[in-house]
User: Fold these one by one.
Assistant:
Number 1:
Amino acid sequence: MTTLIRSNDPLLQPYKLKHLTLKNRIMSSSHEPNYHEDGMPKDRYRLYHVEKAKGGIGLTMTAGSAIVSQDSPPAFGNLLAYKDEIVPWLARLADECHEHGTAVMIQLTHLGRRTNWNKADWLPVLSASPVREPAHRAFPKEMEDWDFDRIANDYASAAQRMKAAGLDGLEFEAYGHLMDSFWSPATNTRSDEHNGSLDNRLAFTFRILKKVRDAVGHDFLVGLRLVADEDWEKGISKQDGIEICRRMKNSGLVDFLNIIRGHIEHDAPLADVIPVSGMKSSPHLDFAGEVRAATRFPTFHAARIADVATARHAIAEGKLDLVGMTRAHIADPHIVRKIEEGREHDIRPCVGATYCLDRIYEGHEALCIHNPATSREATMPHIIARSEDARNIVIVGAGPAGLEAARVAGERGHKVTLFEAAPDAGGQIRIATQIKRRKELIGIIDWRVTQCERLGVDMRYNSYAEADDVLALDPDVVIIATGGLAQNLAIEEGADLAVSSWDILSGDAKPAADVLLFDDNGAHPGMTAAEFIAEAGSSLELMTPERFFAPEMGGLNLVPYMKTLTTKGVTITTMTRVRALARDGNRIKATLWSPYTMADCGTRTVDQVIVENGTSPLADLYFELKDKSQNRGEVDYQALIAGRPQAVRTNPDGTFQLFRIGDAVASRNIHAAIYDALRLVKDL
């Protein structure tokens, strides 16, 4: 049993919010991870929040946001707060979090124009004014007189359900949604009493708040997550935003403010509100502190506060009362427990990859790029249990898959030997970090290397393992995590005249003056190469056969790439394939092909053609060992999915189990590689 350290750490001090005492100053702000089932927070949703409670967090905010009305159809897998059946599901979630001393709140909203009309009940979306919402392409209806009380009553009814569920409170979202569409000059063009003065623009909000207070009383916490400066010439000014905050405090209807700065009209400003890797950390913390100083009111805030030192500074300097570490808790839900136990160095870092949110905005569930247990708590452990039977495990390859396999095997108590041909661990992640703003990704590797060293893994660098090297160790289990090599299966003729994106990023080839980059992958590797080439000063055309540009990447991560490509004048061509390459003097002639006419559609003559086409498995060692293994590499997928040990034994002459993981199987991504490792090795 680990002893908790008594501490004067500002983060670990309790905070009294009206009648509720929070055990520490760390929270997870509201976000919608899309873990619902039929709009309800069932097991997957509940276990995700309970894990943070087990990890010691003071407050977990659910939903982002739960919707209060049927004419606000879900846009991000939102919970349905307008349904009575949500109450028992939320009650169970709250009860289980309360058992660990964690408070639970929820965020409610009417999405207004920030959704689609062509889903759910096919009701028209609505807003203060009929100003189109670019992200969801909705042309909203302007709210009519009969809409105001209807929606205010929906807010009040939803609030009553939250109180009935035993939650500790709620907050309403007011940035980019219906409520604040009345506040902002960018979205309020009305000519009636709901526009003009600040009083007029706030009238609908206060109508909602009064109805809610009448419904739930003053012994239930109610707050606002609101934009206090849209940082936009069309939007809410800083002066008006702070005045709105003052009025909320003075109304007596609100118990806390959760501060947002910026607007979310399209992807670029959204990425300023929710910064990604390479962007400034905690960019709005000082502004939130200004709001707290101006209002002297309980103030929360979250925006890329990913490390404990910054969070501690926010509380110690009086900038915030509660500090949101939301993506950081997706990476490691046990942050608080590790602080309490003096183990900050063991916290799995959030590297800002924002794989989590990009998946949400593309209609998928949130997943951490390097913690595959998050959202899979029913089957994947955050804390690895010791095995009763220590085994001798040999792993080849120290990329993300191999390192995760070594870490988990070490936690299980096995003897682990890890071979890596290169002088350093990292694999393809080291290639990805060749552009400066993605350097943080190396945290995925550094954390695992540190954990492996702590666990006593025998790390053998500069060791190109052959079959005899592996067999000499008399292993019980061999795991091949050798990754892949850049492939070019995309070009039918003359493919040898092209170089790969790897060649460019690794420095094996330098960008020429005039470059055609053919991306037949649509993910980070091609975009990373494109940014690298553009920054080198080359003239670049980026070509893809896809209808949608960079389809494997969400909008938040696309923003910094597009800023560079636009600034550097990169030409982007979609729906076109490079079919053939041929020499043309000292240059290369590319023949282009259209998937729509099924015929050639032109040519390009350039100095250099670069291809991004994923990887082919580097699996020679696997196939050399296959017939010497007990299972001949076979994986029982049903056992893997169910979390049972691998028991296939098809070769009586075999002396060890053999598996391959990550890109040594097929070209995928970092999350897939790490997930492969965790779900296999946790049962060894």
Number 2:
Amino acid sequence: MLHCLMSTRRSLLIRSMLLATAAGTASAAVLLPREVRADATADADSTVFCPFYCDVAVVGAGAAGLTAAVTAAQTGARVLVLEKMRMVGGNSILAEDALTAVDDQRGKQWSDDAKREILAEKHALLAEMRRRGRTINAELDEELIDDSLAAVQWLQSIGCDLETSETRPGSRHVREYRAKEGLSLGSEVIGELLARAEVAGVPVITNARVVQLTQEPSMHIDLEALTMSGRRIKVHAKTVILATGGYAGSLDVVRRNCPNCPQLLTTNVAGATGDGIWLAENLGAAIVDRDAVMLHPTTHALTGTLISKPLRKAGAILVNSKGKRFTNELDVPENVARAVLAQPGGWAWLIGDSSHFDSVLFERLTATASITREYSIARLADSLNIDLSDLGETLEYCRITGATSGPFARPLPATKFVTPPYFAIRIRPAIHGSLGGIRVDANAHILDRQGRVIPKIFAAGDTVGGIYGRVRFDNFGLIGAIVFGRLAGKNAAAEALAPSQTAPAVQRAETPAQTSHQQASADPQLDANNTETETNGG
């Protein structure tokens, strides 16, 4: 996946920014107190850097955090981003498939009939999301759907090369947007957000784990962050946005929050340990669906490398150790994952042919996963230690019916297995994310346990609970990060820039105007490895 990032026209910029920090000197957008600017370093024996002063402090530099930072900066706020890992991007940089967005019926291009059709599809999608998710906050999921297209268009406006590839099965106006062929979706989105943050003069401090938030009587928020070297960073902010992601990157935290979750690998980056959740909880925030964990049905059985859904959509099927299909491969991920775990040994083979197994995907997977390739079904069965008659019967059924009828019928046909070489990957489900998190209102304000707004604190991304409930649809995670990152950034900046302590009327994010060029500064002494042990992500 990284080869896509490195090959873009922004590769030099992105590589430098991924490794850069911005702690020791202030940029034009973040101020140091006047009395210490002449001597910005602390005493030799001190572990404290002089404090930063900003309007909006963003904790976390994934898609939600960077979106919030760019949005806030484009409204005129001074913004600082703190990221505990050595690299920015979080789980978002690993996104491979698509962003889902629904057409806006308010568009002038739509006829009255089309507008009614769009509204009907929106209502049907929301009804299905609420049925599956069960604990969804109805304000949040409606906001997600209504603002999804504007979020995609905003990404395109800042330079993301996104294309509409197809509509979701059974719909005409629920669309999936993918990066241009050959580009990684996560790298494309994070790369452009980083580039725009640089243009807006937003410093991004890496290796800076926020360990404390304190609300001062002046209604300012004090943040304290620790670096790997033991230095402390102090930040005084008018408002704060928590965008640290979920907790599924730490199997220990998963076990504490969800003791009944199967013992599996994780597709998450190591930084996804739920920091924002406990920071908010220490301030009295309400947490919803704390034990809600989602599974990805197809990761490499030994390494946890994520094998994304497009391979199954293109026709690959799942068979057990006896060569038999046992599920609709395109069912809800949770259902597919549970079906795999119910097979002997809790694993399965993902098999297909070369008609949809392109060289780019093969190159990416072979870097971290073993793939069996054979030029005949007989040799494939032998390599997989499956009886040829059993496997042959399964594949013959796929040739005749496309597996779109009978048991485990698919909405999209399976490959007909007539284009060698044939491939097989041994897969097992993995923990793919946590769905519970901080309770927020429709303006991204964090709420306390009595449902009251905690002043000056916002949240976005996977650190928030209630957006999806206990089940998340495919390809809704990244768009949720963008939608609520924009919302949090817009409203946090509005409160920070308000002339009085009375919070202004908050509103949904709109596509902001272009910003002027400002250069963020860096301090290489903070560029060190994070203390967390990295887990393979996807």
